[in-house]
């Protein structure tokens, strides 16, 4: 029997990519010793945004990737889940794996029903491939509009894929930056599936949470009752810094209060592209009660909402 893997313990830290891969110089490997959170998440809590990387020797990184990360395996993810107090994970395909979803599918199959997935697919994906992903536990596809990370998908291709996954009951996860929302607003509002927006649409947190830029995002959620938001990644958005990420609180808190049934929380472990400021995952969990200030709001955010979106079947 192998020893139990514990974050911060033997075998936890990873600062290399296996197989023929070499982690990018300057890549910020995930936290070597994440703290135990003081905030106790409610029973059944879901970490609804996290990733696996490789391991490269088993699940090669995609030729078209824009970064080569450290390996971050399903075993490490399960160890972190238990350490932080979560019971389930939603694993989102990372861009370093392109549209090759094997690492995510492998993790889903290993999770005994305790994980669901979000895949990346191309226009030529077959219906049989979509059904196989569904059977493994995939419930959505992700499209990235952040131009520095990927070559973005043309809108008509995205619409075609959205129309094909709609009958499966899947949703579309979209990742964009706030400055690009005016241009994308009409397109997003016209898609025939539920939309889940990553990281609150990446607001500029030096602006006001009541200002025009964030107001447009709130308007999208108000007008479209099937738009959801992940209130995630304060570590990516903050200018004031850890551990409080104080400047991000008003944005997340506003969404949790105005749309208590359409918000999701996740750690974003292992924190792709964070370079030198990789967050302590325990601190990220301790951030939750600052944005969801009542037990009722916390239960919706961490349990009811992700269960409705990902585990309704
Ligand atoms: Zn992420």
Q: What does this molecule look like?
A:
The protein is of the alpha/beta class and 313 residues long. The chain has a single domain (46-310), classed as Metal-dependent hydrolases (TIM Barrel), CATH 3.20.20.140. It is 33% helix and 12% strand. It has eleven helices and eight strands. The chain has an eight-stranded parallel sheet with strand order 1-2-3-4-5-6-7-8, sandwiched between helices. The model has no long low-confidence stretch (mean pLDDT 94). The protein binds zinc ion (ZN). The site of zinc ion has 5 residues, from loops.
* Low-confidence spans: none
The CATH superfamily appears as Metal-dependent hydrolases
Global mean pLDDT: 94
Radius of gyration over C-alpha positions, nearest whole angstrom: 18 Å
Number of strands: 8
- Name the quaternary structure: single chain
- Strand pairing plus helix content: what structural class? alpha/beta
User: In sequence order, what are the helices and strands, one letter per element?
Assistant: EHEHEHEHEHEHEHHEHHH
Task: Please give the CATH class.
Answer: Alpha Beta
Q: Classify the beta-strand content into a percent band.
A: 5-15%
Shape: globular
Strand order of the largest sheet: 1-2-3-4-5-6-7-8
User: How many domains is the backbone divided into?
Assistant: 1
Number of helices: 11
Roughly how many Å apart are the termini? 33 Å
Return the CATH architecture.
Alpha-Beta Barrel
